[in-house]
Amino acid sequence: MSLSRLDTKLGACNQSIQQYESNRTICSYDEFVGRSLASAPYEQVSRVTLDQLRIFVAVAERQHVTRAAEALNLAQSAASAAIASLESRHGTKLFHRVGRNIELTEPGRAFLEEARAVLARVAAAELMLAEFGGLQRGSLAVCASQTIAGYWLPRHLANYRRAHPGIELRLTVGNTAQVAAAVHDGTVELGLVEGAVSDPALLSEVIARDQLVLVVAPDHPWAGRARAEWAELADIEWVLREPGSGTRSVFEAELARTGMIASLRVALELPSNEAVRAAVEAGAGATVISASVVAPSLEAGLLHRVRLNLPDRAFVVLRHRERHCSRAATALLDTITKASGRALH
């Protein structure tokens, strides 16, 4: 190549360099790092992996790459590559290579302490998830109507507690409307009520059945009767639970079916089964109530049962349609259904 042609090419190169220097954007180191981090994928920024930590700790504890690789069921080349990657990416030597042996450097000793702490926290997190999955720990919030919570549910909760002592059970009590609202709002995971609930957000399944009975005091005008007919219910006064309770709702549904609901004379409305039972025992009127609530009073002669063609009522479990059913909740339902011989779907 002639000198004139070489000069021409060098001149063109210098012109290109000058144009590049005039057009490029000058930024500080901090600005450059900020832009790089903002545009880099997460995997490129977070460079230390749990596998690298495990390999580093294994090598540091054994001071031997081959033995560490064997303990981790890895190829020696993979263990060596993991250590080399840590050192090169962070510009720090973690081991001295002394002949055929390795020793931790000062940064390596400091990093070993941090690596062990991170792996310990990971192990604790994995154990926590395993304990939740294995029902060794956790909590379950349940809301039940008074009849269920006071007379039917306790034996099932006792069985559940024996099987899963690590699960904390929290039981609240309300009437059927309150239980349904608690499940709907997510305050509790499971609700247990008597009868149907009209809330499209909730799933309801029958879990057991209960018998309602008509009872009066021993000195009540009906105390000598064995049976009563629906048309006769308007002849006496009644003591009932508050509107919204499952017991009252089932009774009123039957009254409506027989055309008697408008003619019923309600003398007292009381907020609990115990209050209703005590008022009836005192002669305030008749009531329809769960057989399990009044069984002790009937046995003691404090109340008298009058036969009435009352239907069984369902005990229903409520769950939110869009919320996950936890293992703890599933286990409680399994405990109940095994005892009652009824399967849920």
List keywords for this structure.
single chain; 3 domains; seven-stranded mixed sheet; D-Maltodextrin-Binding Protein, domain 2; alpha/beta
CATH architecture of the largest domain: 3-Layer(aba) Sandwich
Shape: rod-shaped
Name of the level-1 CATH class of the largest domain: Alpha Beta
- Order of helices and strands, N to C? HHHHHHEEHEHHEHEEEHEHEHEEH
The structural class is alpha/beta
Low-confidence stretches: 19-45
Q: Could you say how many structural domains there are in total?
A: 3
β-strand percent reads 15-25%
What count of helical segments does DSSP give? Answer: 14
Q: What is the tally of beta strands?
A: 11
Distance between the termini: 90 Å
User: Level of helix content?
Assistant: 40-55%
Query: Would you tell me which CATH topology of the largest domain applies?
Result: D-Maltodextrin-Binding Protein, domain 2
Biggest beta sheet summary:
7 strands, mixed
Radius of gyration based on Cα positions: 38 Å
On the 0-100 scale, what is the average pLDDT? 85
